[in-house]
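Quick log. Single chain, no ligands specified.
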Amino acid sequence: MSIKPTLAEEFDQLAEEYTDKIRRWVPHYDHLVRHAASIHVEASSPKILDVGAGNGNVSMTILERCSPHSITLLDASEDMLRLASARLSPSVEVFNVKSFFQEARFESCQFDFICCSLALHHLVVDDKRSFLMRAHDWLRPSGQITIADLIIDKQDSDHYRLLEEWEAYAKMKGTTEDEWKHVMEHYEAYDRPDNLSTHWQILQDLGYVKLRVLFKQSKWMVLSAKKPS
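-> predicted structure:
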């Protein structure tokens, strides 16, 4: 398995076996998905935006918990969107948006809930801020955003220990040496995680309220915040 020249192509090549691979490659993946889908909004039939939707695992979990008006799937991978839409469309109205999420544009107050699962770590800090500013605009009053991700700066003193724990987990789950090499090449080429204090500062600066950590295991976390009512 070789690293692809664009992030979209990276995920296109993973699409058909995505869930199997991601469960072996990402510690606590099922917990991250479950908490990313922790929707607590006032709307009885919410409009949802799934950022970095992948093959639809988070949206499928949301469907187990509520009856959305619609789900908008945002992903740069056409193959991922095809798979996610096929899974979801029998149960809910689905809109596919093929785009890198930092380039996406939606109307103000369009969504009640935005989930970002293993997505924001692909952005440098200024792009994270820009995206979260636009997401704040897209949310309706009292709307909620969740962020499931690796939350650590690569320059942090405990980053090396994280990598050791991560490799041990992946290999314990059956990840081969070739696969692990690919994971680390991807991590080096495409991933720009930031620490918790950076996420909190951005969210607070942009006017989000009710900031919470819904799940935390080592540096794998799910954050939640709301737009004021």
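The two ends are 48 Å apart (CA to CA).
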